[in-house]
Amino acid sequence: MHRIAVSSRLIAEIAYDPDHKYLDVTFHDGMVRELADVPTEAVSGLLTATSPGNYYMTYIRKVFPRRDGTVASSNARTG
To answer: Under a CB-based contact definition with an 8 Å cutoff, are residues 31 and 79 in contact?
Structure first.
């Protein structure tokens, strides 16, 4: 996966595998969230959003499952 730096106070960089629809989000604190079944359109929205962190929190974090099969809960802290 190719890593792309993101201009965000929350997110440092992302990596996306369009063949498997995997999105890895690396936060500034070093935490990495690995998500599955993420369509290209969602990644494009993240990269073009005025606030990528807000876009992630609103449209990605609780929508797509983690690659390990777990789902973020409404009380989950994302970093």
So the answer is: yes
